């Protein structure tokens, strides 16, 4: 098969890490398969193709690769999705959900198809995939249609700061095998943003975003401009999913500055507690559904505060965070890559025109979002409650009892009982 002009341009590029951002049906998978076969034709090569799921790897790439490699194959393992060639090259297909199985292996080339769909991308790239390319000085080809400003957006921009990276951007129109009329039809049927993302491969804000008001130009900071009043944290525990802990600094104007993030998988409760204790937070708000992990925090002397989860707590918490964003009172340090990613991807379930306000967001890309919500809602709740605060009074309680009003009380004889009275704060 001949590559299209756009595909050929990418195929000829010699950068170690190539990032290809292009529209649906551009010919991404076709290029991926061609690239894999090209590399595997060199003897003793180890090549890996990764799709978002095992099923996708099998449905999309496996059938094609298997038939293309029929002649050159010495063995084909159907269940492991592995093809061994007579020239001693190996082609391995994997789903992102079992990416861990690549740990400790080595590859000359890895092709990642539909990267924007891969969850916890940076963690797995850095901890699992990147090391498999180190000894071999292997290459990677990242291919995707964009999905909001998520990790694929950052990956696409890496060429600005790292000369190993080169990015390409093509729309579906660049595939001459797709009838022009088909694309025009999609243009009429989809919203303009959706069409721009899916076919023009432009980065657009995800539809149904929870924190629509989050804006890099308004909410990111490099240097904190105000004095610190206190330092708090929320904790969303996780082992397979990341454990997320923002360091949140509150200033005099009740502005919250997220100065640092902890976002790691595979950490034990003890390791997490050690991190939190070392940070010396004034108060910490952990997810109440993890009593064992909370017990570890307490053992390390952390000032653990209660997080109350109720019927509308997610919705109310989101409202609170949105208010702060709108008022420009929640800021994120530019280094907090995962926090920014979650703000830019945390979304409600797919388009329901009569979007029900009560509905909760999709349960993904929400680890840091939950941790921030715990800390901010519980802190601001207690601060609002402080408009009425409680102080003890030495007045005999009887004097406060209307039934006995006027009845004489010998305060010298009767030990005064402490009463609590509300003292409004001005
Ligand atoms: N170089 C090519 N020559 C012929 N047909 C191609 C070529 N590249 C892509 N196509 C066709 O275009 C369609 C979309 O290609 P595919 O690789 O599945 O796109 P994507 O992965 O971007 O959605 C498929 O029908 C495929 O056969
Ligand atoms: Mg594809």
Summarize this structure as a short list of keywords or feature phrases:
single chain; 426 residues; alpha/beta; Rossmann fold; Nucleotidyltransferase, domain 5; 8-stranded mixed beta sheet; 6-stranded mixed beta sheet; 13 helices; 16 strands; 22% strand; globular; disordered C terminus; binds adenosine-5'-diphosphate; binds magnesium ion
Rg: 28 Å
Q: Please give the CATH class of the largest domain.
A: Alpha Beta
Number of domains: 3
Provide a count of the helices: 13
Biggest sheet, open or closed, and with what strands and sense? Answer: 8 strands, mixed
CATH architecture of the largest domain: 3-Layer(aba) Sandwich
CATH H-level homologous superfamily name of the largest domain: P-loop containing nucleotide triphosphate hydrolases
- Spatial arrangement of strands, main beta sheet: 3-4-5-2-6-7-1-8
Which ligands are bound? adenosine-5'-diphosphate, magnesium ion
In the predicted model, the low-confidence regions spanning at least 5 consecutive residues are 386-409, 414-426
Q: Which class do the helix and strand fractions yield?
A: alpha/beta
Strand content: 15-25%
The helix/strand series, from N terminus to C terminus, equals HEHEHEEEEHEHEHHHEEEEHEHHEHHEE
Question: Mean pLDDT score, rounded?
Answer: 88
Shape: globular
Task: Give me the CATH fold name of the largest domain.
Answer: Rossmann fold
State the end-to-end CA separation.
78 Å
List how many beta strands DSSP finds: 16
């Amino acid at each position: 098969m001949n590559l299209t002009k756009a595909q050929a341009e990418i195929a000829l590029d010699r950068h170690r890490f190539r990032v290809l951002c292009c529209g649906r049906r551009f010919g991404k998978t076709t290029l991926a398969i061609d690239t894999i076969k090209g590399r595997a034709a060199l003897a003793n090569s180890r090549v890996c193709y990764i799709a978002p799921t095992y099923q996708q790897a099998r449905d999309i790439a496996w059938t094609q690769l298997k038939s293309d490699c029929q002649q050159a194959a010495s063995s084909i393992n159907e269940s492991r999705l592995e093809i061994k060639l007579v020239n001693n090259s190996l082609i391995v297909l994997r789903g992102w959900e079992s990416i861990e199985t690549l740990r400790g292996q080595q590859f000359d080339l890895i092709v990642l198809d539909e990267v924007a769909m891969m969850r916890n991308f940076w963690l797995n790239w850095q901890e699992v995939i990147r090391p498999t390319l180190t000894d071999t000085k292997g290459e990677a080809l990242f291919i995707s249609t964009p999905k909001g400003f998520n990790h694929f957006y950052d990956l696409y921009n890496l060429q600005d700061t790292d000369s190993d990276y080169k990015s390409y951007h093509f729309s579906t129109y660049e595939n001459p095998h797709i009838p022009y009329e088909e694309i025009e039809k999609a243009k009429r049927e989809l919203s303009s943003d959706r069409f721009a993302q899916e076919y023009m491969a432009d980065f657009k804000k995800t539809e149904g975003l929870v924190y629509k008001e989050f804006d890099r130009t308004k909410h990111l900071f490099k240097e904190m401009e105000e004095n610190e009043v206190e330092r708090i944290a929320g904790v969303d525990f996780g082992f397979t999913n990341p454990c997320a802990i923002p360091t949140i600094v509150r200033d005099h104007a009740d502005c919250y500055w997220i100065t640092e993030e902890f976002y790691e998988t595979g950490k034990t409760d003890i390791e997490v507690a050690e991190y939190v204790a070392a940070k010396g937070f004034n108060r910490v708000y952990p997810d109440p559904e993890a009593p064992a992990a909370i017990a570890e925090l307490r053992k390390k002397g952390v000032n653990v505060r209660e997080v109350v989860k109720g019927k509308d707590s997610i919705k109310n918490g989101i409202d609170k965070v949105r208010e702060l964003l709108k008022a420009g009172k929640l800021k994120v340090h530019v280094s907090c890559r995962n926090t920014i990613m979650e703000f830019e991807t945390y979304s409600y379930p797919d388009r329901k025109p009569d979007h029900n306000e009560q509905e909760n967001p999709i349960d993904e890309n929400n680890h840091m979002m939950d941790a921030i919500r715990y800390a901010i809602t519980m802190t601001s709740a207690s601060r609002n409650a402080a408009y009425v605060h409680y102080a003890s009074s030495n007045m005999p309680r009887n004097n406060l009892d209307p039934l006995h009003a006027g009845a004489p009380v010998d305060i010298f004889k009767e030990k005064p009982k402490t009463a609590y009275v509300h003292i409004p704060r001005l």
